Amino acid sequence: MRILAVHNYYKIPGGEDSVFENEVKLLKDRGNEVTEYTRHNRDMGIKELIFEAPYSQKSYREIRQIIREKNIEIVHVHNDRFLISPSVFTAARDEGIPVVKTLHNFRLICINAMLTRNGSVCEECIKNGESKYLPALKYGCFRSSRLLTFLNLRINRKAAENRIYEGVKFIALTEFNRQIFIKCGFNPDNIFVKPNFTFGGSGSKDNTNERSGFLFLGRIDPLKGIEDILNEWMKLPESFVLKIAGTGEDEYERKLKERFDKKNILFIGKLSHDDAMKELRASKAMLFASLWYEGFPMTIIESFSGGTPVIGLDFGNGGSIISSIYGRKDPLLSDIRELSGRIESFDEDLKNGLYHFDEKNLDDYSPDSNYNKLMEIYEKCLIF
User: Fold this and answer.
1) Does 120 fall in a domain?
2) DSSP secondary-structure letter at 313?
3) Within this chain, do residues 295 and 355 fall inside the same structural domain, yes or no?
4) Residues 62, 95: contact at Cβ < 8 Å?
5) 299, 314, 320, 321: least CB-packed within 10 angstroms?
6) Is the pTM of this model over 0.85?
7) DSSP symbols for 167-213
8) 219-233 pLDDT, tens per residue?
């Protein structure tokens, strides 16, 4: 199949960038002709945000040209904010080519893309089953700035007024996400579900006796629940070691290190993907306590794929994915205040099978399964 894969890279590298690259590799490895169209937000200033982000004529022209020259059959958009812009959808439609967009986050219904405000879930803008952005403007939800929120709001408004997404098919990463978009008025028939995938781990569940310590892996950010985890860790004896792999805003990270200065709490910084996987496979368990719904937390899949159990909250996509792999909910925490007790009893609980999971439950997140689902979606898009 001849596919145009479209992605706007973020200023700060994130999970969506990796998912895009992995998916392109997956398609190419299986013999598809994949053309990539990418731009990078490091090249964006206020001028581009004002004049190009709502609708880029540059992207429109270039994408139409690629479709013609490469005889593209389908366009797959991952992220179009901000330099590519929603003009990609018009370009595909004007060339008569079907287009599908992966919903990596909630940006089409929430200005800050995360359905959060002040460190907790917020659904004010989607209360009545459609996106109304006045609360976002009131609170300055995009980067705590009313001006930037207004500029971002213009993109969504212009797209709605011009019916940019008419005929577009969508990929939700989970059924949980799909239901949120349906609640906001998206046509259920136009939203498919396909999770992200991992190329697999080489860890084993049989070497748990050789593992030591626990791991938090991810961005050091209040929404990731890092403070809740650290508060629980302060209750534990120093024999229980927690490693924190990741970085965040310099000032926030500095304050955390000062506030949670304890010998058994180790901030080990940002790791390469390979080194992060090594840390996962050397740890007794990974901790997941995100305070927002999340799009699709890849660290959960990577942890289980390496044979490492996950201790997480029964909340949002994280809880849904964790319970699907365990095949039950009892390994989940109903409240983060249960964490310190769970850590103290971990070895005994592990021995008694609390964290047992069937590796077959990871099949949905394998490259083969993912590829088959993706091709099924493409075929449906081509038919309809």
Assistant:
1) no
2) B
3) yes
4) no
5) 314
6) yes
7) T-EEEESSHHHHHHHHHTT--GGGEEE-----------GGGGGG--S
8) 899 999 999 999 999
Q: Do 91 and 166 fall within a single domain?
A: yes
CB atoms inside a 10 Å sphere around CB 144: 10
Main-chain dihedrals φ then ψ at residue 240, nearest 5 degrees: -95, 110
Q: Which CATH number covers residue 53?
A: 3.40.50.2000
Which pair of tokens denotes residue 356? 């047992």
Shared domain for 348 and 373, answered yes or no, is no
3 state SS for 21-52: HHHHHHHHHCCCEEEEEEEEHHHCCHHHHHHC
Give strand pairing partners of 313: 333
Residue appearing with tokens 């596919």: 3
| 307's tokens | 């044979």
Q: Are 13 and 40 in contact (CB under 8 A)?
A: no
**pLDDT at res. 209:** 64
293 and 329 in a single domain? The answer is: yes
Q: Cα separation of 106 and 319, whole Å?
A: 18
Do 6 and 68 sit in the same domain of this protein? yes
Residues in the chain with pLDDT values less than 50: 202-203
Domain of 223 in residue numbering reads as 205-363
Question: What is the amino acid identity at position 151?
Answer: L
Which runs of E-coded beta strand occur in the chain?
2-9, 33-40, 74-77, 99-103, 116-117, 120-121, 169-172, 191-193, 214-217, 242-245, 265-269, 285-288, 310-312
CA-based Rg of the chain, rounded to a whole angstrom?
A: 22
In tens, the pLDDT along 6-42 reads: 999 988 777 789 899 999 999 999 999 999 999 998 8
Would the CA dihedral through 5, 60, 71, 189 be positive or negative? positive
Q: How far is CA 90 from CA 94, 175, 182, 368, in A?
A: 6, 28, 23, 32
Token pair in block for residue 311: 């201790």
**Residue 291 near residue 115, CB atoms below 8 Å:** no
Q: Which of 157, 285, 148, 180 is nearest to 229 (CA)?
A: 285
